[in-house]
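Data deposition worksheet. Section B asks for the primary sequence of the deposited chain exactly as it was used as input, without tags or linkers unless they were present during the calculation. Section C holds the resulting structure in token form. Section D is free text for depositor observations; keep each observation to a single sentence. Incomplete worksheets are returned to the depositor.
Section A, Depositor: J.P.
Section B:
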Amino acid sequence: MNGAYYALLGQVTNWQRLGDGLHKPGGRAGLGEMLGVLAGVVALAGLVFAIEHLRRRFDFTLTCNDSTKLFRELCNAHELDYPSRRLLRRVSAAAGFDEPAAVFLSPEWFDPERLPKRLAAEERRLQELRERLF
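Section C:
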């Protein structure tokens, strides 16, 4: 046998004690460790719930009866930016529609004469939207 073999045999006590520091005396988990694990599980469940909620919210392949989702889908189909979407919501509210998507069916609400005073400053943008939508 060569010298390397004897050198390894001389280390047997170190190899036997290699995992001794991994276990606590008593072998039981304390309350603090259990609360940490529980908090981790709750955080993971919350993350999964949030991701699933967002996936369903923006999934336009599922059929549903959600007027807000219909409004978003119509805005996406017309490639409207956020300020235009906000303006359409304001027009819908001024018109008294229960559903914001109804503004896509009512071009008369884009006429300057029918606009409320608070939307009069947006007359140019509303005309551009009318040309784009209708």
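Section D:
The chain is about 55% helix and 0% strand.
The helical segments are 3-9, 12-16, 31-57, 67-77, 82-95, 123-133.
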